[in-house]
Design brief:
Elements lengths: L7 H13 L18 H10 L8 H8 L11 H17 L2 H8 L5 E3 L2 E3 L17 H9 L5 E4 L6 E5 L2 E8 L5 E8 L2 E5 L13 E7 L4 E7 L3 H10 L4 H9 L17
Parallel strand pairs: 2-3, 3-7
Antiparallel strand pairs: 1-2, 4-7, 5-6, 8-9
Helix pairs in contact: 3-5, 7-8
Length: 265
């Protein structure tokens, strides 16, 4: 699961759903905080359950300071709202929870599975489903894994990279042109969506169940009392647009021109 964003109601519903399916392990791909009204409750729950978690971009920003580079927001208005949410979260978060976020790893592996927030290269990079196949393959290969789990986009998907043949031409030290062919075995990118701020067109929380034996992926969509979270967003003084888009499961109309851009801060 990923991108809880301070939405404790959604996290609670997802954990109950996971329990019903008798899953062996739970992994979290970051962004425990940001946008939502209950950052401390979310971090405390993840800590208490000892769930292996990687750092998300919001988790990083609360610890290190807001990413204020030009590529951080798609518009001046979005940047203004993002700064308000960051300032509110920064004041709200307890010291012990900040320390927990500060010690989260950037990635980790479990056998042939790799786990990141955005991509292996950056927590700010979006691995979109239409990403160029060569780039997508490189991202998986860089982890030395067969399956790469990510979040960050808030939209779940499964992408299978199969029957990929690479042809490389190069010149050796004698300037003789040579050619090598490589075959990459089946690889997958699995985006687990978002627990606390889904953007797939519905307010339901999303996460993924992966069967390691059958190599099967189940995209789970969990309804919960999102109106309670929306009311808390407004009550705590966070931008009302956060409640609007949570209730609709949509990203606001503003979108970055190049969502694949990697922040170089």
């Amino acid at each position: 699961m990923s991108c809880i964003h301070g939405n404790y109601e959604a996290l609670d519903a997802v954990l109950l759903d996971i329990d019903k399916h008798s899953c062996d392990k739970i992994f979290c791909l970051g962004d425990l905080v940001g946008y939502g009204p209950y950052p401390n409750a979310v971090v405390a729950q993840i800590r208490s359950l000892d769930i292996p978690t990687v750092a998300g971009c919001w988790d990083e920003d609360v610890v290190e300071g807001l990413n204020a580079c030009e590529c951080g927001f798609p518009s001046v208005l979005a940047e203004k709202r993002g700064k308000l949410a960051h300032e509110w979260t920064d004041k709200e978060i307890y010291p012990e929870n900040r320390e927990f976020l500060a010690n989260l790893p950037q990635s980790f592996k479990e056998e042939n599975l790799a786990f990141v927030h955005g991509s292996p290269h950056s927590n700010h990079e979006y691995l979109l489903p239409e990403l160029d196949a060569f780039v997508a393959l490189e991202r998986v290969l860089s982890t030395d894994a067969d399956v790469l789990f990510c979040g960050h986009t808030h939209v779940p998907y499964v992408r299978t990279l199969d029957r990929i043949n690479l042809q490389v031409r190069f010149k050796d030290y004698e300037a003789t042109e040579k050619e090598k062919n490589f075959h990459a075995p089946l690889k997958q990118i699995i985006n687990v969506g978002s627990v606390g701020e889904p953007r797939h067109g519905r307010p339901n929380a999303t996460y993924v169940i992966y069967d390691t034996d059958a190599q099967a992926v189940i995209l789970r969509e969990v309804p919960y009392d999102y109106e309670k979270t929306c009311a808390a967003i407004i009550e705590k003084g966070l931008p009302a647009i956060f409640a609007w888009r949570l209730a609709r499961g949509l990203e606001f109309a503003e979108r970055a021109d190049d969502p694949t851009h990697v922040c170089t801060r």
